[in-house]
Specification:
The complex is a heterodimer of chains A (249) and B (324).
Chain A lengths: L1 H14 L1 H34 L6 H25 L4 H6 L2 H6 L4 H29 L8 H27 L4 H17 L12 H5 L1 H9 L5 H28 L1
Helix pairs in contact in A: 1-6, 2-3, 2-6, 3-7, 3-8, 6-7, 6-11, 7-8, 7-10, 7-11, 10-11
Chain B lengths: L4 E12 L2 E12 L3 E5 L6 H8 L7 E6 L2 E2 L4 H5 L2 E4 L11 H11 L7 H11 L15 H13 L5 E5 L7 H15 L3 E5 L3 H7 L2 E6 L2 E7 H8 E9 L5 H5 L4 E6 L4 E6 L3 H18 L3 E8 L2 H10 L14
Parallel strand pairs in B: 3-8, 3-9, 6-7, 7-8
Antiparallel strand pairs in B: 1-2, 1-4, 4-5, 9-10, 11-13, 11-14, 12-13
Classes of the chains: A mainly alpha (249), B alpha/beta (324).
Chain lengths: 249, 324
């Protein structure tokens, strides 16, 4: 049941030009970034050779690429998630789901899974670039995997938040703006506390703080738990919202 | 075919902020019933339909679908019902086949029966030709049919159709009505509509709702009775003095419409009113009144509907044959 909903979601995504456009544009921009980083790496190489434990290509090319991918996702995720539920509310198709023998949890998980399938394709496509470096050099596989994990957790969190905000309104644009605002706020919330390394509460809340740590290759259970909690919270809220949608609308 | 209660709704209330949209509604639906749900705009028809289909939660009340409580066990209960909302819930970017497959999967039809269910629904709704077309490219009538196909694909015990014939051409309407009649033999169907002839054509029970309250419910026999009235229109070429008519036993009231046309009200008693007619006829012959019209006045369903929904009086449960 969850899978049916997910596949329908994925299918509808690829029926519209939006998904294709997003994939193409993002790929182009990230490819540009990727080449810039490689270029950068070549110009730095003579200096690096003089250093004792110099950062490798993984640190200088792959990590920045993942960082920027994170920022691009911040902008792309709201565009993709905005229609998840709001569009169904707007066109009335949600009535089909509501009158079918499926629970609200199944609807939410199906929608979530569908969108995650889309972003898995997205990550796969992005990952071809760093993987292509294997043709010419050695990469730190551990750090590479950590980078993928970070991207995956990041986008899982983005989609969960986007799904919830999409369930609150029947206007996709409002859902997109709200999602972008929320994610951006969570991204920069520790800006004021950036210098304060001690246990500042804003540092704990900030998305970037947790994802950066993983990209650096430090996989800390705190960070993983942060993401898991983040996702569960927003999925739980979405289920609740759908339940109460039947009560109010 | 045994009569089983498919829907049992009791004491349903629903508020939209301050508006009491549905008030203490209760009704039952049995197998073989095609229940016409009537009411003016904003009376709470669609709200009630949404509540029964489980897409809107009532503030209080109980609904059993085929013996399963809709609020306690929504997933089980919803397997028993198919619902076509006012706006057909169509994913326009899918083809008819893809959409029906999705609907069938949502309704938990087993894998080996999927294709048969889709074919059946497609055939019943006359969609065989357009299976591979995008829903967005179909006309309104065809989209409506896809909506109906979606509601019957899993062969549910209860089918709820909110204004199913809106936007269809007369031939399609005829076909859909036929389909509903056919489905009604083995299912319980509720249709909401404000097209009154439609109720006559397909329904065997009628409920009228007004301001969220059920003001009338009856089967078709009851309606036929309610449509009878004791009024008879008379027209004479050489009209008698009204008092002569008034004197006939069994005529309780007389209205003079024009010098030649009258409207009489007969007594409630059957024998007495038959006697009155006989007397009237023989007097007419005797005095050469030249009776050229004698027409029992029938209250149309429209009239009943208007009486019930427009009048300011607080809702009577079942109307007496009141004066027009």
């Amino acid at each position: 049941m969850i899978l049916s909903i997910a596949l329908r979601e994925l299918r509808s995504l690829f029926m519209s030009p939006l998904a294709w456009t997003v994939l193409a544009v993002v790929q182009f921009i990230l490819a540009w970034v990727f080449f810039a980083q490689i270029d950068n790496f070549f110009s730095l190489q003579p200096q690096l050779q003089t250093l004792k434990s110099a950062p490798g290509v993984t640190d200088l090319v792959v990590a920045p690429l993942f960082n920027i991918t994170g920022i691009v996702l911040l902008m792309v995720a709201p565009l993709m998630t905005m229609r998840l539920i709001s569009e169904e509310r707007r066109t009335g198709t949600i009535q089909l789901l509501m009158s079918s023998p499926v629970s609200m949890t199944q609807i939410v998980l199906g929608k979530y899974l569908g969108m995650m399938l889309f972003f898995s394709i997205f990550i796969l496509q992005i990952s071809l670039m760093p993987l292509s470096l294997f043709l010419g050099t050695e990469l730190d596989i551990g750090k590479l995997m950590a980078g993928f994990l970070s991207l995956f957790l990041l986008i899982s969190a983005f989609v969960a938040a986007g799904l919830y905000l999409s369930s609150l309104t029947d206007n996709p644009t409002i859902a997109a703006v709200a999602t972008f605002g929320l994610l951006l706020l969570l991204w920069i919330i520790n800006a004021s506390a950036a210098n304060d390394t001690s246990g500042n509460v804003f540092n704990y809340i900030s998305l970037i703080q947790h994802s950066n740590a993983i990209i650096r290759g430090v996989i800390n259970s705190t960070d993983i738990i942060y993401f898991v909690l983040f996702i569960c919270t927003f999925l739980g809220l979405s289920v609740r919202q759908l339940d109460s949608y039947r009560l109010q609308h | 075919m045994s009569k089983t209660t498919l829907i049992k709704a009791t004491g349903i209330n629903r508020f939209f902020s301050a508006t009491h949209a549905v008030k203490d509604l209760a009704f039952e639906l049995n197998t073989g019933d095609i229940l016409g749900f009537l009411g003016p705009n904003g009376a709470g028809k669609s709200t009630t339909m949404q509540i029964i289909s489980g897409t809107l939660a009532p503030d209080s009340g109980q609904i059993e679908i085929n013996g399963i409580d809709l609020i306690e066990q929504p997933t089980l209960a919803k397997q028993q019902l198919g619902y076509l909302p006012e706006l057909p819930p169509l994913y326009k970017e899918l083809t008819v086949n893809e959409y029906l497959l999705y609907a069938a999967k949502l309704r938990a039809i087993k894998k080996d029966k999927l294709q048969a269910a889709i074919n059946n629904a497609r055939q019943r709704c006359g969609l065989s030709e357009v299976g591979n077309k995008l829903i967005s490219s179909l006309s309104k009538g065809y989209q409506q049919r896809v909506g109906i196909a979606q509601a019957i694909i899993h062969n549910p015990a209860v089918i709820i159709l909110d204004e199913p014939t809106v936007g269809l051409d007369p031939i399609q309407i005829q076909e859909i009505r036929q389909l509903i009649t056919e489905l009604g033999q083995h299912h319980g169907i509720i249709i909401s509509t404000h097209i009154l002839p439609e109720v006559h054509a397909v329904c065997n029970r009628v409920q009228i709702i007004r301001q969220g309250r059920l003001v009338y419910h009856s089967d078709m026999d009851g309606i036929s009775n309610a449509m009878q009235s004791n009024f008879v229109e008379l027209s004479f070429k050489s009209a008698p003095d009204p008092s002569l008519l008034q004197n006939i036993a069994g005529i309780s009231q007389l209205d003079k419409i024009t010098p030649h046309d009258f409207c009489i009200e007969l007594s409630q008693d059957q024998a007495e009113s038959a006697q009155a007619i006989n007397t009237l006829l023989s007097r007419s012959l005797e005095h050469n009144w030249q009776l050229n019209k004698m027409l029992p006045r029938v209250r149309s369903l429209e009239q009943i509907f208007i009486d019930l929904t427009v009048s300011d009086s607080t809702a009577p449960s079942v109307p007496e044959d009141a004066a027009e």
